[in-house]
C-alpha cells in the first residue's frame, strides 16, 4: 500500500519511506504522524520481510517500486523477520546505503546490540504513549526529511 502526500518541501524531492511492519495499527499511526506535518513524502508499506526484500529488489509485484530514502523496520514479523531483512539490506551493494531505522516494540539489549552490529542507522523502541509515538515519528521525519543529506536514489 502506498500513501502519497503532496505538500511542498521547498523544491526538494519527496521523502520516500518504506515501512516494514506487520501491525496495521502501528502503520496507521506512522501514516497519521507523517500526514500531520508540512513535508512532501511518499509512504510505502509492506507487512513482512519477504515483501520488503521483493520491494527493495524490485521483484514482482514491485517492479516499478521507487528506491526508498529511508526504511522503518520492525523486528518481529512473520516469514522473514526484521533482523534478516536488515542483514540482507546491509550486505547488498545496491541497498546498503539506504538508512535503516529499526522501529520496534523490543527493548531487549541483545536486539539493540545485534541491530547496530548489523549496521542499523538507528534503533528506536516504539513508544506506547500516542503523543510520544507521534513526536518520535515527527523527529524521524524532520531529521531525515530536512537535516541529513541522503544518498542519491540511484546509488
UniProtKB/TrEMBL annotation:
SMART domains membership: REC (SM00448)
Protein name: Response regulator
InterPro entries, alphabetized: CheY-like_superfamily, Sig_transdc_resp-reg_receiver, TCS_response_regulator
Alphabetical list of SUPFAM superfamilies matching this protein: CheY-like
Response regulatory domain sequence ranges: 16-141
Lineage: superkingdom: Bacteria
PTM sites of type 4-aspartylphosphate: 74
UniProtKB keywords: Phosphoprotein
Keyword Phosphoprotein: yes
Amino acid at each position: 500500500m502506498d500513501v502519497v502526500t503532496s505538500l511542498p518541501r521547498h523544491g526538494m524531492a519527496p521523502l520516500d519511506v518504506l515501512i516494514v511492519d506487520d501491525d496495521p495499527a502501528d502503520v496507521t499511526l506512522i501514516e497519521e504522524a507523517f500526514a500531520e506535518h508540512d513535508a512532501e513524502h511518499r509512504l510505502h508499506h509492506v507487512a513482512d520481510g519477504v515483501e520488503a526484500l521483493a520491494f527493495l529488489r524490485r521483484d514482482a509485484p514491485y517492479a516499478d517500486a521507487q528506491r526508498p530514502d529511508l526504511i522503518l523496520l520492525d523486528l518481529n514479523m512473520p516469514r522473514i523477520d526484521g533482523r534478516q531483512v536488515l542483514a540482507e539490506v546491509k550486505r547488498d551493494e545496491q541497498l546498503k546505503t539506504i538508512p535503516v531505522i529499526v522501529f520496534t516494540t523490543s527493548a531487549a539489549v541483545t536486539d539493540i546490540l545485534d541491530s547496530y552490529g548489523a549496521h542499523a542507522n538507528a534503533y528506536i523502541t516504539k513508544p506506547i504513549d500516542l503523543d510520544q509515538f507521534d513526536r518520535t515519528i515527527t523527529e524521524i521525519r524532520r531529521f531525515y526529511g530536512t537535516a541529513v543529506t541522503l544518498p542519491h536514489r540511484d546509488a
